[in-house]
Amino acid sequence: MSLGPADAPQHILIISDNLIEVLDLEEAIKAAGDYVVLHLRQLEQLHQHMSSLTDHVLAAFVAISAETLNSDPLIDGLVQRGTKIIAIDGGTAAARHSGWMTLNRPYSDEILSDLLAKLILRDA
């Protein structure tokens, strides 16, 4: 059963400079449903892409520090667009404080699939 919507693929953003992690996440996300995945190595690259992100971005998996997670205007811009932020490890305490979801390493495809299902329910 696909967790993505029937009519159009959802967009998911991954911000991480860990290529192995990105490939693992992307593979698991695509296996869970009809998702379009955009990968950025650094948060600063998001500034270049913000104006071209016309489709709704369901979620952003971010591997950045807690300080950046709580203070960066680009993260705020995603949140204002309705994007759900998922902090990968480094920002987990800050994420919980802000009410965001977290993804702790090591994670399995099943954990990621369950997380995506929760995101779909929150977005409905």
Layout: helices, strands, pairs:
Elements: E1 10-15, H1 19-32, E2 35-40, H2 45-49, E3 57-62, H3 66-71, H4 73-80, E4 84-88, H5 92-98, E5 101-103, H6 109-123
Parallel strand pairs: 1-2, 1-3, 3-4, 4-5
Helix pairs in contact: 1-6
CATH topology: Rossmann fold
**Mean pLDDT score, rounded?**
79
Distance between the termini: 18 Å
Q: Main sheet?
A: 5 strands, parallel
Unreliable parts: 1-6
Mass-distribution shape: globular
Q: Which structural category fits the helices and strands?
A: alpha/beta
State the name of the first-level CATH class.
Answer: Alpha Beta
Give the strand order, joined by hyphens, for the main sheet. 2-1-3-4-5
* Number of H/I helices: 6
Q: Could you spell the SSE succession in H and E letters?
A: EHEHEHHEHEH
Number of strands: 5
- What is the correct CATH architecture? 3-Layer(aba) Sandwich
Task: Classify the helix fraction into a percent range.
Answer: 40-55%
Strand content: 15-25%
CATH H-level superfamily title: Response regulator
User: Number of folding domains?
Assistant: 1
Alpha carbon gyration radius: 13 Å
